[in-house]
Amino acid sequence: MKRLTLSFLLFASLFSIKAQQSESIQLEEREAFLRRQSLTNLLRPTVHSVFSRLYTRPIDILKYDLDINLPMSSSFTAKNRITFRVQRDSINRIALNANQMTIQSAVWERNAQTEPLTFSRTDSLYITFPQWLRQEDTITIVIQYQVNSPSYGYYYYTPSQTGFGALAYTMSEPFDARYWMPCFDEPYDKATMEMKLTVPQGFVAASNGLLINLTTNPNNTRTYHWKTDYPITTYLMCFAVSNYQKFDIYYVRPSGDTLVTENYVWASDVPSAQQSFSVLPAMLAMCENRFQILYPFEKYGQAAVRPFAYGGMEHQTLSILQRNLLSSQNLIVHELAHHWWGNMVTCETFADLWLNEGFATYTEALWREQLQGFTGLYNYMQSRLRPNQWTNAVYNPPPPYFIDEVYGKGAWVLHQLRFWCGDSLFFQILKVYGEQFKYSTANTAQFKAVAESLYGEALDDFFQQWVYGTGAPRFNVTWSRASVGNQWQTTVRVQQTQAGQTFKTPLELFFQFQNSTTTVERVRVLSRDTVFTFTFNERPTSLEVDKNGWVLRFPITLDYNEKLQHQRYQYRLLQNYPNPFNPSTTIEYELAKPSSIELSVYDALGRKVATLVNEPQSAGMHRVQFSAENLSSGVYFYKLTAGEFSETRKLMLIK
Predict the structure, then answer these.
(1) Is 257 exposed, middle or buried (0-12, 13-18, 19+ CB in 10 A)?
(2) pLDDT-wise least confident of 426-440, 519-533, 537-551
(3) What pTM did the predictor assign?
(4) pLDDT tens per residue, range 455-485
(5) DSSP conformation letters of 587-639
(6) Are residue 507 and residue 425 in the same domain, yes or no?
(7) Cα Rg, the chain, nearest whole Å
(8) What φ, ψ does residue 615 adopt, rounded to 5°?
């Protein structure tokens, strides 16, 4: 949601952005549960994350069926037919969110009849049933209500305000659906939806899902009937109504399958919008190829609105775009990407918002890579690198939640995970994550678990420093070279000078030699002060660090120092990376002093399958590539022996 260009961010900062922290439904038994679990001292989003997993909600909403009479003014009347499943025995009252609206009636539909229900209002809408409801009962209620110029959620603008025609639309993220429809307004609660919108003749009403019927009424109105059978959370439900002109763009897959994209703009904008939106088929193809999941809904749509405080909003199957930004490819691909990351898989709570916004922002980078290759990826990610401004963690942002840490830094989290894992494994992580939580919700811990299951080892350091922690590394790098016989021993010292946490990260060192050749050494920085040694056959003439910009960091200080002092080394064997791997992986080890060493690989039965090193070597860090092209998938072990020192680690080959 709310994807902004930098210039628009600066513009928006001049205005007061709503910093509303939604109050949760206040049921006495829920509060008692939270007190028993000693959770009430936690921040609200974290409470909800724990709550949604530990606490069984009294009801589960199955469907919203809305019938809205919209006269194109700041007020409207509506009926919401809500079907829910009872999830606990012995309840006779439910609570829904319904802010700043007039509730006219509530009835219970059962046995082909309706029965009036009593209701009351405090911070929530409480509806009381005349009998105890039983677990697994399916209940349908109908609420008649009126919306009168709410503060949030529903917006109406006159032709003089839009510069085109009258405009009515909804914008509900994070907790604003409750201002225009009674609902259970939390991101972790999904349901199906139908929406009938009755509007004056001459207006077009767009909404989620497919238009299944259009009726012309005798009172000079038309009723648009929209429906989606895909699960949708309340903040993704929407409508947009104006004197739109609609045009379609078709995406045809190589298989011949066709997906329609429906676009709603004002008539004067049609030619420019057709040109701007012509990139949609290529963007859809890129997303499907990269994510390895077909577009997951029945259609895609876009509607232009103005005024609009943000860049866009990824309402499910109907993104709304700020009319002045229709030509922004970053905006278009951002809201499209949300249909995988945010709509198909929705953040469980807004503590996990980066799973929506960071993923969509990184898709902007993938689009630049699609158009311009690695240069496009590099330039885009450097444009989003703002370590001086990122003072909050990516996880659990403060209200109003939509800060650049969840967008820009969230994208950098994924960029670095790609660097840690390699392209093949990184995009496999996205695929498995998407498939596992398809049409559901997910939290940060669950995404981490998917990544670890495929990466083959814990990613605690990665998530702690980049997702849950703050700050970024400041690297001070010094290097030296010395002629040793016919070779050149090169030493690189990497020091971290930032305050706060110590970062552990891979780092690429780019050496250029006197004969104009180059080589790249990938190392792992594990401490505040790390020294690496290399032996080259040619004289190195220059060093560049992280030339390709894979690490979230401050600018690097780089010096050459002939008198570089070496730290004391130790014997140790490091975990290979990547792991699992196919077909090659890097093994690093450190020698406390010059030693005759053997580094060999064994299968699960203890048989030696490869000898990687068997020679005297100098003290310091060493690395070797192991290629397993001729081996079958499975678990293997690699063992380092140096004098009395011996250490063995496990690696996994997956083909």
Answers:
(1) exposed
(2) 519-533
(3) 0.83
(4) 988 999 999 999 999 999 999 999 999 988 8
(5) EEEEESSSEEEEEEEE-TTS-EEEEEEEEEE-SEEEEEEEE-TTS-SEEEEEE
(6) no
(7) 29
(8) -170, 165
Closest CA to 510 of 536, 483, 548, 481: 548
Helix axes 410-421, 374-383, angle to 10 degrees: 140
Nearest C-alpha neighbor of 355 from the set 426, 433, 462: 433
Is 333 within a domain?
no
Neighbours of 65 (CB within 10 A): 18
The pLDDT-based confidence of 569 (bands split at 50, 70, 90) is: confident
Mean of the per-residue pLDDT values for the chain?
90
Choose one of 501, 530, 560: the last residue of a domain: 560
- Report the CATH number at residue 206: 2.60.40.1730
Domain span including residue 598? 572-653
Strands 608-617, 595-602: pairing is antiparallel
What is the rounded distance in angstroms from the CA atom of residue 415 to the CA atom of residue 383?
A: 13
- For the four alpha carbons of 204, 206, 211 and 217, in that order, the dihedral sign comes to negative
41 found inside a domain: no
Beta 540-545 vs 505-513: how paired, if at all? antiparallel
Instruction: Give the Cα-Cα-Cα angle 186, 400, 438 (nearest 5 degrees).
Output: 40
Residue 355 DSSP code: H
- Number of folded domains in the chain? 4
Locate 518 and state its tokens: 């180059």
Task: Say how many C-beta atoms besides its own lie within 10 A of residue 439's C-beta.
Answer: 14
Query: β-strand 620-627 against 634-642: which pairing, if any?
Result: unpaired
In this structure, are residues 187 and 237 in contact, taking their beta carbons and an 8 Å threshold? no
Helices (H), 55-173: 159-162
